[in-house]
Fold each of these.
Amino acid sequence: MRHFVVVGILVVVVSILTYWGINASQLMPVEASAQAIPVDWMWNADMKVIAFLFALIMVPLIYGLIVFHRKKGETGDGVHMEGNPTLEVTWTVIPLITVMVFAYLGAYTLGETRVVDPNASAIKVHAFQWAWRFEYPQGFTSDELFLPVNKQVDLQMDSSDVIHSFWVPEFRIKQDVVPGRITEYRITPTLIGSYKVRCAELCGTSHSYMETPVHVVTQAEYDSWIAQQVQAASAALNAGGPDAGKALVGKFGCLGCHTVNGTPLVGPSWLGLYGSTVHLSDGTTVTADDAYIKEAILRPSSQVVNGFPPMSFNAEALGVTDQQITDIIAYIKTLK
Ligand code: CUA
């Protein structure tokens, strides 16, 4: 009996110390979203059970090793014990119930993180090797994500190449970004500050560099940032030339298939394209001049580049004008 009391007390003490140790090690970054609250609650509940289980296994094991080890001169066998149905039923039923309760709590917590606010504004997120681009409903794109505090946003995410994963540790929740479909990430930031979205799915050579700032700002700062971006985008468009071309490339989603850094994507990269010799799939070659690029934008399937699938860009449906094509070509010329 004495052994049970001592082990019981030790299990309680070690449980508390283990849980305290896990908390003190500060595994979690700050809690910066409404969705983080149920996640952290669940995490803490898990840690309490894990701390208790750890103590329940380690304390009797170590206690037994020390107290019941073979004394000097002892040569006999240990006590022979046959099964103990009460004990076996107990250690089956209690864990079964615990696991079922936690399955329910896990499902409930997942539901809590997905509560839909009908007033949430949607922002499109494009993931590609190896960066993020955010397309705002006001008609501009940004390399950094700005979010107003205490407002739910609905990120509509797609990928143009491989699977990526949108993860802001301070927001806790994480969502895969899969080519060919749109995945949703609802978040209500609650703490003003700057964080980082990082890709949490191994997606190639520069996976570890696939991160970009996420700024949670007041509604007033958000509104003025939006106004500033809208103005900058329209100013660039009106000015014409390479800057307008660059803005148009973002507007028409060209970078979903082409890169400007030399890496081929769905289509060839634009780096060093202008003036180069292009090998077409029909075996002919052509020089990438204004006429060629214009034709490639307007009728992409008329001259398919060798090694790439025919592109599906529909300039007519998007209402691309001749002036806009001239601006885009001006931009491509700068990519050397
Ligand atoms: Cu994208 Cu890893």
Amino acid sequence: MSSEGLRAPRQIRVVFLGVMLLLAATLGWLGWRLLQQDQQLLGQRLAERREIAADLTVAGLEKRLSSVEHDLSQVLVAGEAPKMPAEADAVLVKFLPTGIRVWPQHRLVYYPELPEAPEAPATLFLATDELEFKKTDYSGAIAALREPANSTDPKVRAAALVRIARNCLKNGQVQESLKTYEQLASLGPVPVGGMPAGLVAKAGALAAFEQQKDQAALTRTALALDRDLQSGHWPITAATYHYLAELAGRWARDTEVNPAPRVALAEGVEWLWDRWRATRDRTTSAGGRTSFDTPSGPVLLVWRFSGNTMAGFAAGADYLANQWLANMKPLLDSQGVRLALTTPDGRPVLGSAPGADAHPSIRLSSATQLPWTVQVFNTSDSQGAFRSRRGLLIAGMCVLLALILTGGWFVGRSVERELAVARLQSDFVSAVSHEFRTPLTTLCQLSELLRRGRVASEQDRQQYYELLHKESDGLRRLVEGLLNFGRLQAGQMPYRFEKLDAAALVRRSVAEFEQGQQAPKHRFEVETAAEPAAVHADPEALRCVFWNLFENAVKYSPDCDTVWVELARNGRHIEIAVRDRGVGIPPSEQRRIFERFVRGSAARESNVRGTGIGLAMARQIVRAHGGDITVESEPGKGSTFRVLLPVSTERKFTTDEHG
Ligand code: ADP
């Protein structure tokens, strides 16, 4: 291929690479835009889900609250409360001028006010006791109390028993004191010093065990006291509860019951009570709802007035989560959203508030009239769908890009090849023109001389005729060769196969070639096997192959005037080798010289005439005979072309030396 022939493909390659890069960049940009749009779309879809979930939640909570308000109205009218879940963390109360009613019973661990006013301060029984018994020996005091201790009035009896027990303790009679506290405990809710006797007895027993330093008994009693307090069975006030709870907590650190939710409920009820008492003109206020924040947790409070009566509802966060929102959870989960309730001033009630980047949908308390601000935000799972879709899109883009690049590479290669062939063809046309021009010029000049009669002698004339014949014969062969090449390319070469002796054909071809040679003449040394080499072949086609090889051997060995032609049997093949000691062929060209229009670099540089179709034709003909043609060559040392033809097994064949 000429250097010019290389330039065009290089330009094409650069343009093609540019187009490919442009295509890849466009694809990348499109993919990126697609991803962005996808993300935007997903953002919209997630926002829609949040909005719907937020609206549903608000509607659900509003429904529940309305239902509670309806229940409260019923309580005010009928005086009976609807059934409350036994284990739930909620309570219904009704405040009347005559007292408090609570549903379910024993839900409150303390009450805002007791039905009866306390007789004395709660700490009475632990304070330094009655004035008249301030002496070292308490026996007299104890004896003096024996009579009231047997009284039929439980209050008198309880007060006496407390004093006896305390004085026994001071007197060092611990067992006696404990026994007395046991008697006191049996009086149960009878108030003594503003507290139920049962609780006073347990607190007193703790003092006795403390004096005894009986740690096991202390813990046991403290736990029992705590259980008593949490059971809500005792009519006590907040002060008493906290005092006793602190006392129990001092000796039993790990209390079995978690008092927080119940204390929160009691605190909430106390707040309602205060409100009931504070609202003088109850006709102007029908009721309300709020989220009340206590040290033990947030409490929902709903209340309703009717005259001077109030019905209230208090519920902890667990109640909201398990009773009100539990049936909404599957829906929220399926939408990939989570919920957080906060008080209007931002303190958490339920669920943890989302981070700054969560973009929650918010329903403010002021807009919804709910006692909470509702926040709905997407869970991280909902982003997962986008991530997997993005992965799929990127993979698709990569596959598309790979397809485009592969396709581009194939197209580029084909274009490059076509261009190379086109370049070779144009080289071929100029080579053929060149081949024609030289003999035609000779023919023109000789015929001109003969026409004008400018020939000196008869001998010269004869010589001119000879030359005219040779040149026109050369032209004929050239034209025939081109015609044959055309037929071969079109697959229309009419082969006439017959069984013949290849050795005879080789000898005859050499002889004819030698005869047709122009000066300087090359010598052919032919060596053939003695026995006939039978092949099934078209003699004309094979002669064409041999002539090409002989011509090349002569053309490309300007410094050696001998060409060796050898024929031998090689297994199941007849091998005809044409050897010269010419310019040789570089290894990089040895495969390509058999392709059409391809000429070797040495041939082009040394201006040896040729068209680049001889070896292509030779290979096509030999392969049509079931054989092959190979080359062994070393630049500067010469080349050997070998034609391999299968041995014919037919019996009858032509041995005619002269064709
Ligand atoms: P051309 O008309 O150029 O001879 P061919 O098809 O016959 O075309 O040969 C192709 C190329 O192979 C030649 O251009 C030449 O470079 C190389 N070639 C063929 N025969 C020989 C040889 N005997 N010695 C060196 N080079 C050869």
